[in-house]
Write a structure and sequence with these properties.
The structure holds 2 protein chains of 2 kinds. By secondary structure, chain A is of the alpha+beta class. Chain A has 2 domains: about 5-80, 2-Layer Sandwich (Gyrase A, domain 2); about 95-225, Cyclophilin, CATH 2.40.100.10. Chain A has helices at about 35-50, 70-80, 85-90, 105-115, 120-125, 220-225, and strands spanning about 5-10, 15-20, 25-30, 55-60, 60-65, 95-100, 130-135, 140-145, 160-165, 165-170, 175-180, 180-185, 185-190, 210-215. In chain A, a hairpin with a 3-residue loop joins strand 4 and strand 5 (about 60-65). The radius of gyration of chain A is 20 Å and the shape is elongated. Chain B has 2 helices and 21 strands. In chain B, the strands form 4 sheets. Chain B has a 7-stranded antiparallel sheet with strand order 7-6-9-4-1-12-11, with no helix packed on it. In chain B, strands 13-20-17-18-15-14-21 form a 7-stranded mixed β-barrel. In chain B, strands 2-3-10-5-8 form a 5-stranded antiparallel sheet. In chain B, strand 6 and strand 7 (about 85-90) form a beta hairpin. The chains are: A alpha+beta, B mainly beta.
């Protein structure tokens, strides 16, 4: 439809279009934004708005804000916030995650698809640094980039009904971690015993969008001994 | 206090409350009762707090035995209720004695019925809610649907009081569901209200599928982005899909609008094949003007 009443705001040196996603939810969208800027803005918005927002859902080029107050007060607060280097200074979180490839149910399939041996898949996977891009799709699922294209492997034709928490998967050119048990169709190449999601902790997730992850290999013995 | 044992139950009876909020950033859906008004009403009838957990039944009914004196009420989709083979009205509080058998039929009109039990129902609380989310096993009893043999127990119940609420409004032959415009509204070439859709029988707690002629649209690609219950997605086939309480947190189809909160319960209760029209209205804060 032609009629268009666009509202926009400037925040973090970016011009954002404002859309109403729900009665108490707005979507800030910046069409050609870099994902790094989305992650940085998400962190800043959490700091600036604090309890004024009840939830925040970033994605590739937008951030959804859920609120219980008046929308105008949120927008005003964002627009009047001068984003200083100091505010931005929060470092990108870097995590080392132990992974047991022996629990990789589909490691062999990925190797066959790549036309290399299993050990080579592991070596290539270990050499990568992966960045959390988006959290969602299924509860606690962390989408990541940084996968070596050689390891890209199409999703499974028959998704599994149950995937163990901590499973590391490859779906097409993307990779990710199932931080909670859920159904899923990605190729599982390994599993971490490290709890990434604890509902009793605040925040419940130890990874946030923008976090960088590298993997450290562990044996099945070490996997089983974890935490004991 | 109240205690009921499940004797017979369909596969889709779950414990639900108002839902979980604040966890969409972790990919955790809202869940909660599909008909919030019916949840509030049934809790009122049994002298509970408005958002306390209740039993939501869908498509099929439930049969229970009272293990002790228990206050109950049923709201939502129209069902027939029997206590020891005696027919009793919905939307009214009833007191069961130990040994009484309560039978709630499958819905005769509407989709979701609510059984309220006096007191606070014991259930798993995950992320601030007891609402059952089957896919991830959150809330309810072990995160699953009710099954034969389950014991539903409440505590902190108030003494029996007789309440009655008025029956809810009749549905029209073609229901008008009010919507507000969504981020990709501009991809539509025509007003959605000109098309009459029908509710696809495969609709469920994740979404209401529609049957009807496709809406004329400019094809547009959308990067995966936030969606919420009520979001109306327009897939490439042009037939809107309305996301409901158990929907995912992000999606990749254009979002042409959102069903206004007040109409969500009415939409959820529409019978399979019921006819409806999506009519755009002004958003309360005036950011999007009505068309005409």
């Amino acid at each position: 439809m032609k009629e268009k009443e666009l509202q926009s705001l400037r925040f973090n040196n970016t011009s954002w279009e404002i859309f109403q996603l729900g009665e108490k939810c707005i979507l800030l969208q910046a069409p050609n934004i870099q994902i790094e800027k989305i992650h940085e803005s998400t962190r800043l918005i959490k700091t600036v708005l604090g309890n004024l927002i009840t939830d925040i859902v970033p994605s590739y080029n937008s951030i959804a804000l859920f609120y219980s107050t008046e929308k105008s007060s949120l927008i005003e607060k964002l627009e009047t916030t001068k984003v200083t280097a100091e505010k931005k200074s929060k470092k990108i979180q870097r995590l080392e995650i132990p992974i047991c490839y022996e629990l990789g149910l589909d490691l062999a399939d990925v190797a066959v698809h790549a036309g290399i041996g299993k050990e080579e898949v592991i070596k290539t996977h270990l050499s990568g640094v992966y960045r959390a891009i988006l959290i969602g799709f299924t509860p606690g699922f962390i989408y990541m980039d940084g996968l070596d294209e050689q390891l890209a492997c199409p999703r499974k034709e028959n998704p599994r009904k149950f995937i163990e928490p901590g499973s590391v998967g490859i779906g097409g050119e993307q990779t990710g971690i199932y931080s909670l048990a859920s159904p899923g169709g990605w190729n599982i190449i390994g599993r971490t015993p490290m709890p990434l999601f604890d509902p009793k902790q605040q925040p419940p997730m130890s990874i946030e969008v923008g976090s960088e992850v590298s993997y450290v290999r562990m044996s099945i013995k070490e996997f089983e001994a974890w935490g004991s | 206090m109240g205690k009921l044992r499940v004797i017979k139950v369909g596969p889709l009876s779950t414990i639900q409350d108002e839902g979980r909020f604040g966890y969409r950033q972790y990919g955790i859906p809202q869940s909660g009762a599909m008909d919030i008004r019916a949840l509030h009403n049934v809790n009122h009838l049994v002298s509970n707090g408005p958002g306390w957990p209740v039993i939501e039944t869908a498509i099929q009914g439930i049969k229970l035995e009272a293990l002790e004196e228990t206050t109950i009420a049923v709201t939502g989709a129209i069902t027939s209720i029997e206590i020891n083979d005696q027919q009793l009205p919905m939307n009214t509080s009833h007191q069961l004695s130990k040994g009484d058998i309560l039978t709630i039929s499958k819905p005769l009109d509407g989709v979701y019925s609510y059984l309220g039990i006096g007191g606070k129902l014991k259930a798993n609380e995950d992320f601030g809610s007891t609402s059952t989310y089957l896919m991830a096993g959150f809330g309810g009893i072990e995160g699953r649907a009710l099954k034969k043999g389950d014991v539903l127990e409440t505590k902190e119940g108030k003494p029996f009081e007789n309440h009655v609420i008025k029956r809810e409004i009749e549905t029209k032959e073609v229901e008008t569901i009010r919507i507000m415009k969504g981020p990709e509204w501009k991809l539509l070439k025509d007003l959605p209200e000109r098309t009459i859709f029908q509710v696809d029988p495969s609709s469920n707690r994740m979404g209401i599928r529609l049957i009807g002629n496709p809406l004329d649209m400019i094809s547009g690609e959308v990067l995966s982005s936030a969606v919420i219950p009520g979001t109306i997605q327009l897939p490439p086939n042009g037939i809107p899909l309305i996301l409901m309480n158990d929907c995912q947190t992000t999606g990749g189809y254009p979002r042409i609008g959102k069903v206004v909160e007040e109409d969500m319960g009415r939409l959820a209760q529409l019978n399979p094949m019921h006819r409806l029209r999506l009519k755009v209205i002004a958003f309360e804060d005036g950011t999007q003007k009505p068309l005409k």
